[in-house]
Structure formats: C-alpha cells, structure tokens
Amino acid sequence: GFKGDTPVTFVRAEFNQAVLGDSSKITVSPEGTAKYNFTSSIELSPDGGITLDDLAHKPLFLTVTEVLPKEKKQKDEKTLTLGQAVVDLLPLLEGEDSFETTVPLHPVQGSPLETPSPGSKQCSLDVKVFVTEPLLTAAQVSASNLLKVTLEAAYSVPESFMPVGPQQNYVVGLQVPSVGEKDYPMVFKNGNLKLGGEREVVPRPKKWPIANILAPGANNIPDAFIVGGPYEEEEGELNHPEDKEFRNQAECIKKRIVWDLESRCYLDPSAVASFQKRIADCRLWPVEITRVPLVAVPKGKPGKLEKTDEETQFSFHGVAYVNMVPLLYPGVKRIRGAFHVHPYLDSTVFEKTKCLFSLFRDTGHHLAHNNKAGGLNSPLSKPVSKNLKEEKAVKDKEIEGRARPGDLQAPSIKSQSSDTPLEGETPLSHNLEGQQYLEAGTYIVLEIQLDKALVPKRMPEELARRVKEMIPPRPPLTRRTGGAQKAVSDYHTQIKSISRAILDEYQRMFGKQVIKVGSDVDSETLEEQKCQLNYELNCSGKYFAFKEQLKHAVVKIVREKYLKTTAFESQEELQTFISELYVFLVDQMHVALNQSMPDDMQGTASTIHTSSEQLRLFAFEAEVNENFEMAAVYYEERLVREPQNLDHWLDYGAFCLLTEDITKAQECFRKALSLNESHIHSLLLCGVLAILLENYEQAEIFFEDATCLEPSSVIAWTLLGLLYEIQNNDIRMEMAFHEAFKQLQARTLQTKQKSAGAVESTEEGVKVEHSFGPWGAVHDSATAMKSEGLTGPSTVLSSLDEFIEESSKAHSGSQEPIMTLQPLEPSLAQKSSNVLLKELTAKKETSKCQDSSAFLRSTPYAIPQPPATIFMETIRFLMKVNAVQFVHRVLAHELLCPQGGPSCEYYLVLAQTHLLKKDFAKTEEYLQQAAQMDYLNPNVWGVKGHLYFLSGDHAEAKACYERTISFVVDASEMHFIFLRLGHIYLEEKELEELTEAEDALSEANALNNYNAEVWAYLALVCLKVGRQLEAEQAYKYTIKLLRLGNEGIIFKATFLCKAYRGGHLTIRLALGGCTNRPFYRIVAAHNKCPRDGRFVEQLGSFDPLPNSNGEKLVALNLNRIRYWIGCGAHLSKPMEKLLGLSGFYPLHPMMITNAERLRRKRAQEALLASQKTESEPGEMEAS
Question: Where are the TPR repeats (predicted)?
C-alpha cells in the first residue's frame, strides 16, 4: 500500500519448520478486525512424513505480518512481523474431527502490539481445525495414551557451573520405550543457569520444547502450568521430613538450572503395552544430564569447523534414577518428585536400569555438532558414523523439540564392542566431573504424566455395587406378633381370674385380713392356712376346674408363641420343651400377679436394669474367665435388645473370632456392613474374614472400598498391601504400603503441628499464671519443663512441674518413678526410682533456660518408645478384634520394617498370642524380652500376671498385679487385673466384712443367677454367719451349676468344702472281695468309721485288675458325687486320681508325671529282659 493507508496484513501458517502457506493480504477494518478466510492443510504420512506423534508435541504457528506502506521510488514491499499465535493440535488425538479455538496473538519484540493503546483488547485469531475423518477410532482412543514429561529444574548444581565465561548448553534426556527395539529419545535443551537468591515462582507456565519461536509469549503452552506442591506428597527421593531443610536452601539460595519444558509422546496401543512391560521389567529409568559447549560457526573456514567438531565433547555426565513403578498403581496418572543426580557409570546404570548404552555418549559427537550457533535448540539427530567422510556428507537435519524415532539408530560399533572409549569420551571406569553432582547434592525435579492411567482403578460406585451384591439386604421376617401377644394376654387374663377366685376362697375361710408386707407373721400359721386352703380346693374340685380353665390359654401359647403344632420326635426333646415352657409360664404368672395385686400388697423389690455397656462388660469378663457360653448369652442379649446397632454385631463377631467360629463371625460382620455400607471397620473386618476363608477377590473389593471411603486410613491401606502380598502382586503391595506410610506421616506431622500450637497457647497461659497466679509468683522452673532428645508427639501441661516435685516427695518410698522426662541409657534403667527422680530433677533445673517449649511424654517409661509403624497400628486393630490368625503375618513385616523391628510392643503382642494358645513357655520367653526392652511398661507386668494366674502360680500373679497397679499410668486392661487380684485376695484372706460381702454377692446374683462361683461364696458367707439352711441351698445351686471341665469352679468348691468345718464325710475306696480277686467300692463314709464295709452310700465301684483288653473298669455316679461334695464331703487321694482320670476332677500334673515315669521304667525293664533272653541262646550256641 501507500503511506497513510490503513494497515494491510497477512497470515503465514507453519508446522514442523515447514511453511504451509500465506493468506491473501487483507486490509484491517476501522473496527480492528480482518477476515482472512485462509485455509491450509497438513498431510499425515506414517512413512517418513508427519506422524501422529508430531501432532502431539509440535504446535501450529500462525504469524501475522504487516505490509508496510511503500515509500516513493520503492520497488519491493517491506514487511513487519506483528505477532505469533500457537494452536495446539492435541484435540485431534482425542478423537475429535474438528474444533474451534480463539488463540491470543503474542507480539514479537519491536512490534507495535507490545505497547497497546489504553482500553484496547489483546489481539487474537479465530481458528478452526478439522479433518476429513477422525484420526483415531473410539477403540484406538481408549487403548492409546499420551505421555507428558515436564522438566522443571536442577537444583544445587556444582559450584563450577558459572554464568560467565564460555556459553554452555545444559541438556537432559531420557528414552521412552516403543514397539520393537527402538526407543524414542526425549531431549530437553537450553537450560537457563541462574544464581540463587529467590525461589522460582508458582504457578508458572510450561514451555514448548521448540526452537526459533518469534514471540516470547508464544513459548508458553496454553493452559499448562507448573503448580508445585508439598514435599511430602511427591513420589521422588527427597520427600522425607529430614530433606525439607536442604531443599529449602537449595531452591532459595543455591544455583539452579531452569528448563520449564514439557515434551509429549503419543503412545499407540502396542506402544502402551511395551511401555507398561518396560516399567514392570525395569523399575528405575535413567534420566541423563550433561553440559555441552556452544560453538560459534566461523565464516568461510570449513577446515577450522571440522577440527572444532572433533575436539568438542560433553562434560559433567550424570544420571538420575526415576522410579516409574507408581505409574502401574491403579488409577495413578502422574508422578512428580525430586531425584538425586549421580555420576554416569555404565556398570551402575546397567545394574539398576538394564540399559545397555547412553543416550548422550553414543550420539555425543552429533550432540555437539548440533550445538553450533545455527542450531542451538536442535536435539540429537543422527547416530555416530564410522567413516568421517560419510559424516561430512550427511547434512545436518535440525529438528524442533525432540528427535524423531527413526533418527536415532543403533549406537556406534566402537562404543558397543570395544572397551576403549571414543575420542573425546569420558573413560567408563570413573567420572570425576559427574562426582561433583554428588558432592553438591544436585537433584532434578520432573513430572511424568499420562492422559489415562495404565492400570484402571475401580470407581467407588462400582465397589459399592459389588459390596451390595455380596451382602444383599435381607427381607425382614414375617413375625406373627399379633397371635402370640394375644395368647400371652389371654393367659394373663386367666391368671388374674383364677387368682381372684383363690383370694375370694381364702377370705371366705379366714376372713378379709390383709397382711402387710414386712409385718411380723407367724410362719407356722401361714403354713397351716396354706394346707387348709389346698385341702379345700382339692376336695371341692375347684383345683381341677382352675386347671381346665387355664389349659386352653396354655395350648394357645404353645401354638402361637412357640409355633409347636406337631408331635415331638423324642422324649428328651419333649422334656426340654416342657422345662422351657414351664419357666416362661411361671415368669408370665408373676407378671400377671404383679399387675393384679393391690398396691399395699406389693413389695418394694427394685428391678435391676442392665445397660448395653454393662452387658458388654459382663461378656468381656466371661471371655477372660473362659466362660464362652455365658459370654455368648450376654452378646446375644445385646443383639436382641438393639438389633440395629452395628457395634453389637461387631463385638459379637470379634467374640466368634476368639472362639474360632469364622463362619459365624463373617455373618456378624456382614450384618454390621448391611446396616451401614460406609462403615470402615465393618469393611475391613469383612475383608479380613474373606482372607481367612481364602476368598481373595472379595477381600480386595472390601479393602478397596474402604480406601475409597476413607483414603487417610492407615489400616485399610496396610491390609490391602498384605492382601496383595498374599497374591504375589509386588507392585500393588508396594503401592499400598507406600500410601499407608504417607498417610501415617501426614497424620504424625499434623499431630506435631497441633502439639506446637498447644505449646504456644500453654506458654501464654503460663505467663499469665506467673504474673497473676492465686498462689503468688511462680518460678520459671515450676512453670515450664524442658525435654531433650524426645521425638514424636508429646502431651503438654502448663503447671506440671509442681505436681512432679510434690509427687516425687510423696512417693519417695515407691519402687517406680513418677514420670520420666528424658530417655535413659540402658545402664540408667537399673537404678532405683529415687536416684532417677533426683537426676531428672537436676537435669530439669539445669536446662530450664535452654528451650521455651514444655514437653512431657505421654508414657512414664524410662526407655523411649519408637514411633508406631503402619504394621503396628494394624496389629493393634487385629488384636482388638481377636483376629489372631492374621497377626503373625503382620508381625513378620513389623520385624523387617526399617522403622520397626523388635520392640517392647512387638514382644508383648507375641506373648499375648501365645497366651491365648496356652503356650506358657513361649509366653514367658517373650515377656522376658519385652521386660528387658522396657522394664517399666505396666502392660508387660499385667500380661505377666495373667500368665502366672492361668498357670496356677497365684503368688507370682499377685506380685505382678500389685506391681502393675503401683504404676502412675494404668495398663490397658486394669478392670481384669483388679478382678483377678481381688480373686487372689479372696482366696488368701479371711472374710471380715460379711455384711458388705453378702450385699455385693447378692447384687451379683441378681445380675446373673447362673454363676456357680457366686453361689459358692454366698454359701460360705451363710456358713460364717450361721445360716445353715441358706448355706445348704446355696450349696445345692453351686453343685447344680458345676460343669465338667470347669476346673476353676471345681477348685473353688474344694476350697469351700474345706472352709466348711462341719463336713465329716469322705468319699473313699472300700476294699472288698477276696485276696485273689479284690475289688473296691466307691463309698461316702464317715471319717471315724473303720473300713469294715459300713458306709453311708455307695457311689460306684473300681476293679483294679485289668480285663482281657488291659482296661481297668470304673463305675461312677457323678450326680451323687456332686451332691456329697456339695454337702461337705472330702476326697481321698486315690479318689482324686480316679476322678481326675475320668475327667470329672482336675488331675494334678505330678500325678501324670509320676505315672509316666513309672510307665517308662517298666518299659525299660521289659526291654532289658527281652534283650537278656535273646542273648542267652547265643551264648549257649557259642559254648
């Protein structure tokens, strides 16, 4: 145009360093718009042309150029580049056949667009991209993938890297596996060396790895930013708490090389499979880093140029090992982290990555060749040639961003087959320059991201659906409550009617006198009136009329309540049903009489209501006493009361695990899960039971659902990892354990932060108390405590120093220290508590000015406990639910865990598992090791007391229990420790407070009248106070409730009989028969009577001579033996042995030992006799 006309512009389209075409020259309208209507095309050709991979990592450039007005006498037009726009073609690889976008026009340097007029908008281009047909089908899109690698920076680089002096090109490269033997080289060049002083800003845009971009703003990839993140959430090598300080210094103060480049690689379905297989085979991938000098091209001196090519070499060759395994975790699409840079050594690289050659060394000459001034941004292009003349003939092919797959062929033969390195290479045996990376602590930060996860993860909706399928909701049972309730109501009506008739008869006979409850009444008079009334009812026929009146109501209860309409199969079944029906009818009769009885006739008997928590406690007590039948009754009663409470089902399931009823435990846990499908513990327990039943597929669904519902659950991730270990899935096992460790680390950090906040608030409160305390001014040593060497979360109390000093004075005679503020050496653990308290007080006073934070350990042990590991947390959960079958597998991991190892808690858990199996020897061995590691742990002494109690050594158990309760901090099961200690005291000492004892025992009997031990103690109390009739009744109940095999109750009955001084009977053997054929009667006889056949009752017989089968026959009347023992009879020693061998009475261990010794002695004598008889014929033949 001519000077003064409106601007005239045109657009040039470029792709892959090729100009696609120019638009026509369009005059810009007064509104500032121009319609180019320009169309250009790109020909895709997999065979050596533009491929799908080019579309992935190369954008389309649109350059807007202004045609300047012609000056006078000017022949050629002059142009001015205004700006450049970038179009990302990635949507075409996502299955789209067309898309429209508005891209900003970035001004180039010196363009008028750099200084826009006020109020004007940024220039932009409307672009539409379309293809004649989709490049990929839906199946190809779902099976293919897109790999994005972002190289951010290298921090803490060696000090020899200087920004002044010869220019250097800092290059990082890695190889991406593809189909076949070839790999795709991905190279990042032109790193910017920066001095320290400030941290890199976030978020900051990612840049194209493309050279010769005119507009600075066009370097940025649209909608792609580096956002950073916390160190703890990274997947690299420097994500531990101890690395935080070093990374802060390196990323703020020290030198760094910044790239901020993102390179992409399209992976077709076969490449995805190869990529996944390579990760599984080679967990670590090498990412190489090097430095190459930038060489200027001399003008007109080709000879000099060739010489420079040969002398140019790369230096500072290092390698970072990137763990790519997390990309095989389910649902993981991205890993980002910091990785140490090591010197590149062939042997080390091959050992770790199985990589045979280096990306840079085997093509290093051409890396230098492409780093001349004309091709500073070009990546590697060609392999090393054996013939230098061939190398001169090859034209340099400059490629933007990264090398093509076909460009990098096999490495040089010299480099592969010979130990002698090529000229200019670093010797392979050592790498002095690369060693500087280690000395400086250099690390690179990079991100690897996939468009789709290599291993898909189940969606939470799918997991919830699968759980529902495994646990279908059960329809409620159709209960015929109406008929049953009506039958019971009719029974109540008949009872009330009959009771009124009997009361009328009584009043007719004896008058309408009302007997007040609690008034003095002659019992003989009442008994006489009762006999007269019974006689009158039987003689008049009213008694039989009442029975007929009540019979129909009872029949309705049998049919409607118990649903019994058919005949019974056996007499035993009939008797059992009659007993159950009788109990129910009597209870309902009492209910009806209480309703119909006048208020002034009713007593003040209080009804004892037990809560759900009380029932749970009773069940736990029955578990500890190994009375599993009674414990099941309590658990079932809780379920009957509140069937919709899932905690009741979980407790009952844990009880079933203790009794090894895995099937019923699974039913309980699944019932709990059906009540709340989002309950984490129910899911975990269902998974544990599925593992025990070897149903691993269901277990995986349960655990995965738990991790989806609560991703921060350490136990869920750990159990999932243990399941993968059982399935030999090492990668997923590593993923689960890593996630569990990360969640535990995050929780520990959060706890520390809360503790720090508590410290600050405590210090403020201490200052106020110091100034305005009600007890006057307080010294600094009394308001803040210092602790050195403590690790882990601590409990903070503001004014605890005074409590420590007062407690130490009050407990100066105690055997245990009140609390310990510093970890002690092993030698200090042997010192007395007074010395420890003095030393700790002295340390506290001398260190009062060293730290302003107040710390106190939450445990009083002298030896510091290590922080809990993911496996120990899981062990605690499994022990709580009695999943002992699964604990030993977790204990093995705890032993091998770097953060774990053999600890006091480890040996304590082992001891508890063996104590459940009644393996007392192993239990004692592990408890000794636990005590050696932590002598002041109250749980160790508590479990040791349980060991001695169960093994019968009550003296040692008493000492351990007393030591446990003397600690300041309670053990975890103090309730049962107090119960068993009281049990020992009750056996050893005489009863003094009989009234209080009777009240307590009566209360216990009201709560549970099926406890034989309570009845036994009630009988003893009644004997003490002289109530013989009540004592006899309590005896009868005790003997009635005794069960075979309940050794504790049998011993208690024996102790009770010995305490009963009126007992004068003995159950013994009475000799009968003749000398040649003796036999014994088992009799209950008086002690003073001679053994002449006079006895009270014969209870059995014993034949001492064996029969033809070598058996000695014993006949016992166990019911009568129970009766006489209840009446105070003693057992002779032979009878104790006979009853023990028959299983009725606990057999003393020494009896078994002596019998075994005698049996061995007789067997040895028989063997010697047989050997002697065999040797005699041989001697005779020799003679």
Answer: 646-679
CA dist., res. 360 & res. 574, Å (int)? 93
CA angle, residues 235, 241, 243, in degrees to nearest 5: 75
In whole angstroms, give the CA distance from residue 250 to residue 338.
Answer: 12
Q: Would you state the structure tokens that stand for residue 718, as one six-digit string?
A: 């750990």
pLDDT at 708: 92
Which distant-in-sequence residues (6+ apart) come within 8 Å of 581 by Cβ?
554, 557, 558, 562
CATH class of 1063-1147: alpha beta
**Residue 818 corresponds to which tokens in the numbers above?**
């009140």
Instruction: Measure the CA–CA gap between 27 and 406, rounded to whole angstroms.
Output: 44
Angle, helices 1012-1025 vs 1028-1041, to 10°: value is 160
The phi, psi pair for 1104, rounded to 5°, reads -75, -15
Check residue 75 and give its pLDDT: 66
Helix (H), strand (E), coil (C) string for 1088-1138? CCCCCCCCCEEEEEECCCCCCCCCCCEEECHHHHHHHHHCCCEECHHHHHH
| Domain residue limits, the chain | 8-139, 144-385+397-413+423-450, 481-514+526-586, 1063-1147, 1152-1183
Sign of torsion over alpha carbons 267, 270, 271, 273: positive
Looking at residue 211, what DSSP letter applies?
A: S
Distance CA 566, CA 487 (A): 18
The b-or-e profile of 1000-1032 (16+ CB within 10 A means b, else e) is: ebeebbeeeeebbbbbbbbbbbbbbeeeeeebe
Q: What pTM was estimated for this model as a whole?
A: 0.65
For the chain, the distance separating the N- and C-terminal CA atoms, rounded to the nearest angstrom, is: 146
Q: How many helices (H) and strands (E) does the chain have?
A: 39, 24
How far from chain centre, in Å, is Cα 162?
A: 50
As a whole number of angstroms, the distance between CA 258 and CA 163 comes to: 13
From the first residue on, what is the mean pLDDT of each consecutive set of 10 residues in the chain (1183 residues)?
64 88 85 86 78 86 85 72 89 87 87 75 88 87 91 92 84 80 82 87 89 85 88 86 89 91 90 89 91 68 41 78 91 92 90 85 51 38 35 37 37 34 45 87 94 88 85 63 80 91 87 58 78 84 87 90 85 87 89 74 54 88 87 91 90 93 92 90 93 91 92 93 92 91 87 71 43 35 33 33 35 34 33 34 37 32 59 92 89 85 89 90 91 89 92 89 88 85 73 72 77 79 75 75 54 52 71 82 74 76 84 85 76 83 69 67 84 67 54
Q: What is the 3-state secondary structure (H, E, C) of 620-651?
A: HHHHHCCCHHHHHHHHHHHHHHCCCCHHHHHH
Inter-residue contact 828 to 836 (CB < 8 Å)? yes
**Torsion angle of the four alpha carbons 227, 233, 234, 239, in this order, in degrees rounded to the nearest 10:** 120
What is the token pair recorded at 422? Answer: 């090529």
Looking at residue 236, its amino acid is G
Tell me how far apart the alpha carbons of residues 90 and 789 are, in angstroms, rounded to a whole number.
56
Q: Is the peptide bond before 203 cis (omega within 30 degrees of 0)?
A: yes
List the one residue out of 53, 52, 152 whose CA is nearest residue 403. 53
Instruction: List, in sequence order, the alpha helices (H) in 58-176.
Output: 138-143
CATH 1.10.150: does it fit domain 8-139? no
On whether the CB atoms of residues 608 and 1007 are closer than 8 A, the answer is: yes
Residue 1165: helix, strand or coil by DSSP? helix
Q: What is the DSSP string of 416-441?
A: HH-SSPPTTPPPTT--HHHHHHHHHT
What Å distances lie between residue 996 and 979, 987, 991, CA to CA? 17, 17, 10
Q: Evaluate the CA torsion angle 270, 273, 278, 279 in order and state its sign.
A: positive
Cβ atoms 288, 364 nearer than 8 A: no
CB 1136, CB 1068: distance < 8 Å: no
Residues 6+ apart with CB under 8 A from 687: 698, 699, 700, 702, 703, 706, 719, 723
- Token code pair at residue 333: 């699409």
In whole angstroms, give the CA distance from residue 1095 to residue 894: 66
